[in-house]
Amino acid sequence: MCSIWPACLVTAGAVIEIAAVAAVASYELARAHGAAGWSARLLPLTVDGLIYASCS
Questions:
Q1: 3-26 tens-digit pLDDT
Q2: Against a cut of 0.70, is the pTM above it?
Q3: Are 41 and 50 in contact (CB under 8 A)?
């Protein structure tokens, strides 16, 4: 738990920004390899979910 609120907000913002960039990169990679529709949109969520689960 972060005891300094401004630092927590900056950290959370940085994590969200990095996650968004990673999701876009995963989506573009899925589209480049022929995935379309829901499968291309869900791939970044499954990958990020696996990373989150392994770190928890």
A1: 777 888 888 888 888 888 888 888
A2: no
A3: no
